[in-house]
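User: Here's a structure from my thesis project, written as structure tokens. My advisor, Dr. K., wants to see whether a designed sequence matches the one we expressed. Can you design one independently, without my sequence as a hint?
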């Protein structure tokens, strides 16, 4: 569902809630039911006509999207079952490049916020943000803007190697991102094939493509390369 930026802009300029602009369809992805409920309550204050879906695992997120869920915005927690660090954001950005994603996280370290924006998030909202500020942030993203805490310097702090790794990760297909996520979890090709419902030969082909795109020679090096830019948010156990 496309968001009509003109209507949103008029509503905001007149000081009106977004509810008077149009209908909205949002997805809250967080593994804590109490926080999902609190976020739903806060978001509902923006709209009169809205449908707000919820997902407690990353698998539920992908299932909702694959069933044709036509969302205007996803509010995504970085840490939830099925993802490690920025891998969920990476996957969604690759699979649904036009879908706005705002990361909502308890970890508001500047380095983490910068990584989220480098991986294509439309905004970053700390879980400690007040309700009114949170509503304003969401309204701005729906208007087509990018929102991050105003006191965070988004200037790139990566060295050339780190920047190159992020650029290479951005070339991975959605399925390759999922395979890399599973490699980082220590899964073998046979286990990955079972999880994805594909053949072992297909997994091997994905692994080979990942190694080539990341410019590394082994599975372990691929996991390490991905882990270097995770700012400590993607704990991994390199496969033996």
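Assistant: Designed independently from the structure alone:
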């Amino acid at each position: 569902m496309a968001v009509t930026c003109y209507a949103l802009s008029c509503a905001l300029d007149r000081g009106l809630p977004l509810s008077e602009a149009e209908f909205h369809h949002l997805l809250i992805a967080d593994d804590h039911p109490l926080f999902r409920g609190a976020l739903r309550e806060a978001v509902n204050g923006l709209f009169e006509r809205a449908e707000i879906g919820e997902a407690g695992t990353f698998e539920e997120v992908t299932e909702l999207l694959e069933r044709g869920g036509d969302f205007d915005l996803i509010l995504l927690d970085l840490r939830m079952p099925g993802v490690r660090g920025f891998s969920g954001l990476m996957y969604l950005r690759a699979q649904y490049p036009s879908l706005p994603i705002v990361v909502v996280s308890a970890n508001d370290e500047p380095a983490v916020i910068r990584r989220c924006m480098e991986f294509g998030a439309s905004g970053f909202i700390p879980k400690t943000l007040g309700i009114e500020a949170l509503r304003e942030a969401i309204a701005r993203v729906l208007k087509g803007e990018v929102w991050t805490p105003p006191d965070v310097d988004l200037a790139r702090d990566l060295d050339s190697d780190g920047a190159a790794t992020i650029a290479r990760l951005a070339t991975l297909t959605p399925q390759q991102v999922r395979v890399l996520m599973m490699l980082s979890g220590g899964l073998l090709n046979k286990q990955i094939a079972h999880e994805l419902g594909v053949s072992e030969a297909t997994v091997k082909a994905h692994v080979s493509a990942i190694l080539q795109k990341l410019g590394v020679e082994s599975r372990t090096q691929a996991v390490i390369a991905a882990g270097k830019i995770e700012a400590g948010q993607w704990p991994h156990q390199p496969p033996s």
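When you compare it with your expressed construct, this may help: Confidence is low (pLDDT under 50) at residues 1-21, 231-240.
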